[in-house]
Specification:
CATH class: Alpha Beta
Number of domains: 1
Radius of gyration: 16 Å
Shape: globular
Strand content: 15-25%
Number of strands: 7
CATH topology: Rossmann fold
Structural class: alpha/beta
């Protein structure tokens, strides 16, 4: 990572009030470097510029960190290149994070990345619909609409499970909530900032 981007990451984490545990920042940077290197062969992220990826991948994933319960067994649905699961696991010291992804090449990357930078993180190469294992928390950045996320994770949720979905504009969020089943519309919507990003971001939270 270039010096100026490392400084941007450090200032961004500081703006978020997120203090890195000893060694965590180096693991996060190593993971990001590995992501961009691997991305040259396998399409893991559309953000190929280092600065853009730092902001739109890492800082976006960590933006609402205060709402994440690091103690819960957590599943990241449609993890792709590992967002938000890997940055959260590294920076919050989450010991029970599972990355759910169907595509083989992406899973190969995730296994290699986790072995190097987040060895406690599990990779599940399965369709979320097929997983019949309960998690205390489900997170997702780009799986789809809120209704689609709830449908896909029906067998993964137990009483008390929290669902956290990273979203953009509030107008679009309201539309997605309205599309959910009547008993699944009680979402709490929390705005959050992403340092370096001039865009509307919201975290949608539902407790089953």
């Amino acid at each position: 990572m270039r010096t100026e981007n490392r400084e941007l990451l450090e200032s961004g984490l500081d703006a978020l009030g997120l203090e890195a545990a000893p060694g965590a920042l180096e693991l996060l940077i190593g993971y990001h470097d590995f992501l961009l290197e691997y991305n040259q062969q396998v399409n893991l992220t559309g953000f190929r510029d280092e600065r853009e990826s730092l902001v739109k991948n890492l800082l976006n994933a960590l933006g609402p960190w205060r709402h994440v319960d690091a103690s819960r067994a957590t599943a990241d649905i449609g993890s792709g290149g590992g967002m938000p699961g890997v940055p959260l696991a590294i920076m919050l010291g989450m010991e029970r994070m599972a990355l759910v992804e169907t595509k083989n090449k992406k899973c190969e990357f995730l296994r290699a990345a986790c072995a190097k930078f987040a060895p406690r993180v599990e990779v599940l190469q399965q369709d979320a619909h097929e997983i019949k294992r309960s998690f205390g928390q489900i997170v997702s950045i780009a799986y789809g609409t809120l209704a689609k996320l709830l449908q896909a994770t029906a067998n993964m949720r137990a009483p008390g499970t929290r669902v956290l979905a990273w979203k953009g504009r509030l107008e679009a969020v309201k539309t997605e909530i309205a599309e959910c089943r009547k008993g699944q519309r009680n979402w709490k919507v929390e705005p959050f900032d992403v340092p370096g990003l001039d865009a509307e971001r919201h975290l949608c939270i539902l407790q089953v």
